[in-house]
Amino acid sequence: MATEAGFDPRPPAAPTGRPVPELEPALVERWRSDGAELVDLLALVRVRLGGVAAFRLGPCPTVLVTDPQAVQHVLALQPDRYVKRSHRARLLIGDGVLAATGEAWKRQRRLLQSQFTGTGMRRYEQRIAQAARATAGRWETYARSGQLLDVGREMRSFALDTIWRSLTGHPLDAATEHELNSVATVVAALPTLPADGGDARDAVAGDLARIDAVAHHAIEAARGAHGPDGPGLLHILLGAAAERPEYTDRLIRDELITLLVAGHETTATTLTWLYLLLDRHPAAREQALAAGAPGSAERRRAVQALVHETLRLYPSAWILPRYATEADTLAGYAVEAGSDVVVCPYLTHRDPELWPDPEHFDPRRFTSPDGRPTHPGSYLPFGIGPRACLGLQFALRESTVLLEHLLPAHTLTFHSVPTKAAYSITVRPDGPTPASLV
Hints:
- By secondary structure, this protein is α+β, with helices and mostly antiparallel strands.
- The protein has helices at about 25-35, 40-50, 70-75, 90-95, 100-115, 120, 125-145, 150-170, 175-190, 195-205, 205-225, 235-240, 250-280, 280-290, 295-315, 345-350, 390-405; strands at about 20, 50-55, 60-65, 80-85, 150, 320-325, 330, 335, 340-345, 410-415, 420-425, 425-430, 435.
- It has a 5-stranded mixed beta sheet with strand order 2-3-9-6-4. It has a 3-stranded mixed beta sheet with strand order 1-8-7. The chain has a 3-stranded antiparallel beta sheet with strand order 5-13-10.
- The longest helix is centred in the middle third of the chain and has 32 residues, at about 250-280.
- The relative contact order is 0.17.
- Its cofactor is heme.
- Keywords: Heme, Iron, Metal-binding, Monooxygenase, Oxidoreductase.
C-alpha cells in the first residue's frame, strides 16, 4: 500500500512464470555486422524462439511479442500495465493524441473519438468523395495524354486532400500541398535523425518551420470562418479551446499535425503497396471487379478485401513499442517491471501458423468464411485496444471510395518498382513508382 506521500517503500513484486527465452548475443552481433534492418532481427527472434521472446541491443533485454493471445494481453487487456513512453515522431507531432500519455491522452482521445464513429464518419463522406473524384479526374487526363504519373505521389496527394478537406472544410490547394510535402520529408528522415532531441530538431528545422507556418495559417483561417464544405475537425479543436484551457494554440497545432500525419501517410502508403501488389497479381483486380455491379455491396466487400490483404502484408502500425510499468506474467513468461516490450503486427501477420502461405497476396482471406484467423490479436494493422488508431474506419472508407473510382477505369503499367521496403513509422516502398495508365 502506498504511503500518504504516494511512495511505496516495498520492493516491486517479482514476476512469476518462466524466464523469457533470449536470442544468443552472437546472433545479435552477426545481425549488427550484416547491417540488416531491425525487422530482420525481430524475424530471427520469432522464428528461433516463438511468439514471446527477448533480444538484447543494450544492457537490458527487449521482449518481442507476436503471439496473438500475448498481443491481446499487452495492447487490449492490460494497457495500463504496458504503456507508451514516447513516440518516434514526437518532434513532429508534439503532444498530439498519438504521443500523449496518461490523463491528457484520455481527454484528447475522448474529444476526437466521436468524430470517427459511424455517425461521425457521415460528416466526411462528401469530402472523401470529392477528393476521390478530383484524383479520378487527374487520372483521366493522364490516360488521355499518356503522361507518366508517380503512384506514391498520387496516393499522397489524394490522402492529403481528403484529410485537409476533413480538417478545414477546404480542398487542398497546390501551394499548401507543396509546403506539406515537408511532412513526408520529416517522416522519412526519422530513422536516421540524431538521438539527441535538439540535434534531431535542428536537422529538420526548415521543414518543421514550413509545417508550423501551414498550421498557423489554417488555425487562423478557421477562427475566421468555416470552409465551403462547412466546419471540419479543426473547428472541433477550436471549440474545445473555448472551454478547456489545456487546448492552447500549441496543442491545437499538435493535434492538427497529428491528424495530418496519421490521416494521410498510412493511407497513401497502403494504396501504393496495393497497386504494386496488383501489378504482380492482376487477377486479384479482375476478381474484385467481377464480385458485383458498380456500387453493389458485393463489389465494395471485395474492394475492401484488397485493402485488408494489403494491410496484412504492410500494416499501418508495423511495430508498437510499450513499457512494462509492473511485473507481469505474459503467456506463462515472467516480464519484469521496467522491461521494454515490442509488439510487431508485421510479423504476426506473416506467421504461417496463423496465415497459410503468408507471403502470398490473397484477398480471398477476407471474403471466405474461414479465410482468416478469428483471434483479435491475429490481425491488427491499426493496433487493438484503447490505443488503436482512431482513424481506422476513415482510412478504410477513403481507400475503398478511391478504388471504386479508379479500379474499373484504369490499369497501371509500372515502368520501375522499388526493390525493397523502408521501415519507419510506416512500411513504405523505398523508391519512386513511375507508371502509365491503360
